[in-house]
Amino acid sequence: MAATIIDGKAFAARVRENVAGHVARLKADHDITPGLAVVLVGEDPASQVYVRSKGKMTREVGMKSVEHKLPATAEQDALLKLIDDLNNDAEIHGILVQLPLPEHMDEKRVVNAVSPAKDVDGFHISNVGLLGTGQKSMVPCTPLGCLMMLRDHHGDLSGMNAVVIGRSNIVGKPMAQLLLGDSCTVTMAHSRTRDLPDVVRRADIVVAAVGRPEMVPGDWIKEGATVIDVGINRIETGDKTKLVGDVDFDSAKDRAGAITPVPGGVGPMTIACLLANTVTACCRANGLEEPEGLTV
Question: What are the residue numbers of the active site?
Answer without folding.
Answer: 54, 98, 121
